[in-house]
Amino acid sequence: MYQYDNIDQTIVNERVTQFRDQTSRYLSGKLTDDEFRPLRLQNGLYIQRHAPMLRIAIPYGLLSSKQLRKLADIADRFDRGYGHFSTRQNLQLNWPKLEETPDILEELSKVEMHAIQTSGNCIRNITTDQFAGVAPDEIIDPRAIAEILRQWSTFHPEFSLLPRKFKIAVSGSKQDRAIVQAHDIGLEFYYDKEQKMAIRVWVGGGLGRTPILGSVIREHLEWEHVLTYCEAIIRVYNLHGRRDNIYKARIKILVKALGVEEFKKQVEAEWLHLKNSPNTINEGELKRVTKFFTQMPYEKLKDQDDAFDEVNKNNKAFASWVKRSVHPHKQKGYRSVTLSLKPHGLAPGDATSDQMRIVAELADQYSFGELRVSHEQNLILADVKLKDIFKLWEKAKAHQLATPNIGLLTDIICCPGGDFCSLANAKSIPIATSIQEAFDDLDYLHDIGELELNISGCMNACGHHHIGHIGVLGVDKDGSEWYQVTIGGKQGNDASLGTVIGPSFAAEEMPGVVKKLIDVYIKQRNPEERFIDTVRRLGVNPFKEHVYA
Ligand code: HEM
Ligand code: SF4
């Protein structure tokens, strides 16, 4: 875990006091709606369909079991006994009472948590890889850099009123699991030809109304300059980003309007003033911040376990779960394990307070009391001993946390849509559950193989539909709910945006549409070919023809 120092704790405590006063002034009529709006948004509080919605920050997706237990207690005491893990590694509460939100923030502050930077036109919660620190393909543990960025951006006076929200993602490994190309700034660490660590800087990516994948603005940045270079980028954006039109305010629009070359020229000119200034990070600073993260007391183990091999051979249900949910680890004898928050028939990404407590217990028993949240809306125990995996599975299974569907069609990314969100054009949770129910045969799911299906209830794209192999977007047609389908989107190093296959469908047609897309794939696939690769090879047409036949 990252452990707060006095400065971190003071900031969070002062924020609670300040927000308590702001809320009470609003409730007593001393502040108008307009005056209160920016104050509440700075503390993650939205006004939503049924109730306010509170978005709690989980910086770089890292949680301790103690924090998760606190979230469970908050969900019971102040909400309806559950929370929603979002695609930006945050937790959303859908039913808090406005007058109780200062109390919620106070409870959070007791476990080094807050809701700062989860909303508003500032640099938002920095996201990264859920396997940070343990992935075998890692170049650098990205969390220390993400933490340095967090410290630098929290309350940054120059960047607290940007033209629009600003999202930064850091990938520290060869496989990009942080979707750097779909962020305002994406930082991709790699080794250069001299085997020195460097950063490829992506800029101007983002989904939403105008989906654009980022462009490389600098191929090789010496990592020491990460802050000053980000500072230069955001300064250019802050100066020239459009404030007259909310739909054109994101940096992606500025980069597109100027062209990457011109944008880069301006950033480099700005950087000349900033390069080597005190915000330059040196080894010492990186080490200092790294020390705030708990070092795990790994045991020296063999990378093989007879009992594990035995049960993996003889227990089919366990083996199919292992295949999807257990991931390689840097340390011999350890694995990372994904607990699925996508049991069939329930809202993707939701966890009940009981489940949160169970996961906290599992983290204590099997993973040094720590866990992570992925942008796919699942929970990860990063440091599980090979020999403990079977016991872990049995316990997780008993609490609906071991659906063996990680990376498969029913591991759906889904925004809250019309059930909760006032911006929605259509519901998205019932679409997810109806598709999950239509693909309830686990053997078939495993046979279909890797497939990402992402659903958003409107063009804001919280459910990342553009980068789903299959993407579903809720649209409004004459006051009724319809769904537009895209295929061929992909996250990761070779990211792509999906292509719309044609006119939209009614809700009840959606499971059938997905089935038809799968039929084409099953018929046309080469051995070992994933759905996305078949789509890339054949193009949209065969799929389109079958679906609209
Ligand atoms: C329930 C209340 C929510 C509201 C009012 C809300 C609001 C918005 C808005 C207005 C945008 C569009 C911004 C733009 O112009 O790019 C957006 C985008 C986004 N939101 Fe939400 N959102 C909500 C829930 C969520 C949830 C549940 C998630 C995650 C599951 C999420 C994560 C995101 C993400 C990832 C984007 C992506 C678009 C981009 O790349 O910028 N939001 N949200
Ligand atoms: S995509 Fe639209 S409907 Fe879904 S959560 Fe975001 S704003 Fe709401």
Task: Give the helices and strands, then pairings.
Blueprint: H1 6-27, H2 33-41, E1 45-47, E2 52-56, E3 62-64, H3 65-78, E4 82-85, E5 91-93, H4 101-109, E6 127-128, H5 142-153, E7 168-171, E8 185-191, E9 197-203, E10 215-222, H6 226-240, H7 251-258, H8 260-274, H9 283-290, H10 306-314, H11 316-325, E11 326-327, E12 334-339, E13 350-352, H12 353-366, E14 370-373, E15 379-385, H13 389-398, E16 413-414, H14 429-438, H15 442-448, E17 453-456, E18 470-477, E19 480-487, E20 499-500, E21 505-506, H16 510-524, H17 531-538, H18 541-547
Helix pairs in contact: 1-2, 1-4, 3-4, 3-12, 5-9, 6-8, 7-8, 10-11, 12-13, 14-16, 16-18
The chain binds protoporphyrin IX containing FE and iron/sulfur cluster.
The gist of it:
The protein has 549 residues and is α+β, with helices and mostly antiparallel strands. The chain has 18 helices and 21 strands.
Keywords:
549 residues; alpha+beta; 6-stranded mixed sheet; 5-stranded antiparallel sheet; 18 helices; binds protoporphyrin IX containing FE
Question: Can you describe what's shown?
Answer:
It is built from 18 helices and 21 strands. Strands 16, 17, 18, 19, 20 and 21 form a 6-stranded mixed sheet that branches. A 5-stranded antiparallel sheet has the order 1-2-5-4-13. A 5-stranded antiparallel sheet has the order 3-14-15-12-11. The longest helix has 22 residues. The structure holds protoporphyrin IX containing FE (HEM) and iron/sulfur cluster. Protoporphyrin IX containing FE binds next to loops. This is Nitrite/sulfite reductase. Belongs to the nitrite and sulfite reductase 4Fe-4S domain family. GO terms for molecular function: 4 iron, 4 sulfur cluster binding; heme binding; metal ion binding; oxidoreductase activity.
